[in-house]
Every structure is written in C-alpha cells, then in structure tokens.
Design brief:
Blueprint (H helix, E strand, L loop, with lengths): L2 H16 L9 E6 L4 E4 L15 E4 L4 E3 L8 H10 L5 E4 L3 H8 L9 H4 L14 H5 L2 H12 L10 E4 L3 E6 L2 H24 L8 H12 L11
Antiparallel strand pairs: 1-2, 1-5, 2-3, 3-4, 5-7, 6-7
Helix pairs in contact: 1-7, 2-6, 3-7
Length: about 230
C-alpha cells in the first residue's frame, strides 16, 4: 500500500552512509504522503546495511503505526512536529555529521561567508535556543521539534532547509526525502568550509547582502536562471 513512499525513504536513508554522514545506526530520514496523511521513517537502531523498504515504519501524524512491525525511530515525534509545522516540506533528515554537529554543540549559527553557502542557504544557518530542563525531561523529542519550529517563527523553511539544534545536531529537510539528504550533504560541506574560513581569518565578515541575494536568487528566486529549464 505504501510501497512508493517506503522505497523512497529506504533509499534516502541508505544515502546517509554513502555520503558518510552517519556511523552505526545514527541518524534517520523520513518522508510524508500528505494526501494519505502518513509518514514513513527509519526503524530505531536498525543498521543501514540491513534496511529494506519492508522495514520502514509508516505512521499517521499522531504517531500511530499504520504499517510495519518494528519500532519507529526515537526521533519520530520531532519529525512529526516538523511536518505539522512546515506544510511545505516533504522529507526530513537528521544526522550527527561531524562538521555541522561542531556548530550545534558550540550553540552557534553558521555564518554565510561566501557564495558556496549562499547558493543553497539564504543566510546564516540558524541554531535553536538551548532546551530547558523541563523541555528535556518531558516529551523531549516532541519538544525538539517545537524548539525548531519556534526558531523558524520568522524564517522560511523553503529558503532555509536546515537548522542546528543547540547541543545536539542538524536537521534538514526538502520537498522529498532525497532532497532532505541533499540538504544534509550541503550543510556538512558548508559547515566545514566555515570552520576553515574562521581558522584562516577569525575576523572574516559575512557575505554582502547584494552577493547573497544574487547567488541564492539566481538558483531559487522567481527569475532563476541557473541550470536547465524544466519541461
């Protein structure tokens, strides 16, 4: 019944290993079928090399399992909260990729120093508030989603398909599970380049607004002209 969705989510999860964004069974990717009102996500603790579409867990937006025999990822409540909060997204990825996690653990946003960053993220990659003891002790994973949504109160998740959860790690998203993984790949590279930039010049200023607009909007704006026209 959910073969197309579970196949796409399984493939996206295995891409995390291909791109060396995870070790062990860390991380997870999910996808949503909004018409059906269901989310598919990696099962908890299952190694990527053992993952098959049949092992992907399908739930409704209230977290009730509607397909599958395994326990869903422990991060499922975070994913569900993001799908409820960001109606424009179709896939979510969570990793502990090293470079992005360095910024998350430092509780610092990733500055937009240059055009490599601006081609994909429209400004600094934001970091959430540090979670309170109450948020951690009660419904931790759900509150992780809420702290992300709160950080995006004045941000567009389409223009900024990534966030750093303070003291934790990155979450990324996109219109599909595959695009959510792509966001994670780009975020890791951008995080690494930003660290190198600060090492070379600790006083480096962020990119100008004119150059940020030019590089982001030529790829993603109304009059985008990068790449080939879509048929």
């Amino acid at each position: 019944m959910y073969e197309e969705l579970t196949t796409a989510v399984c493939r996206a999860n295995t891409e995390l290993q291909t791109h060396k964004l995870v070790i062990g069974s860390w991380g997870n990717v999910s996808g949503i079928d909004r018409a059906a009102g269901v989310v598919a996500i990696k099962p908890s603790g299952v190694p990527y090399e053992e993952l098959t579409p049949q092992k992907i867990v399908v739930l409704d937006l209230d977290g009730n399992i509607v397909h599958g025999d395994l326990r869903a990822s422990s991060d499922t409540p975070t994913h569900l909260e993001l799908y409820r909060s960001f109606e424009s997204i179709g896939g979510i990825c969570h990793t502990h990729s090293p470079q992005a996690t360095i910024w998350a653990q430092a509780c610092r946003q990733i500055p937009c120093f240059g055009t490599t960053h601006a081609d994909y993220f429209y400004g600094p990659v934001p970091v959430t508030d540090t979670m309170t003891a109450k948020e951690i002790q009660s419904e931790y994973e759900l509150n992780t989603g809420r702290v992300i949504a709160r950080r995006f109160a004045d941000l567009d998740p389409v223009q900024m398909p990534a966030v750093l959860v303070a003291n934790h790690g990155p979450f990324t998203w996109g219109p599909t599970p595959e695009k959510a993984v792509e966001s994670a790949v780009v975020l890791e590279e951008v995080a690494k380049i930003a660290i190198g930039t600060i090492i070379v010049n600790p006083n480096q200023s962020e990119i100008s607004r004119a150059l940020l607009d030019k590089h982001y909007l030529r790829k993603h704006g109304k009059g985008a002209y990068y790449g080939q026209e879509k048929e």
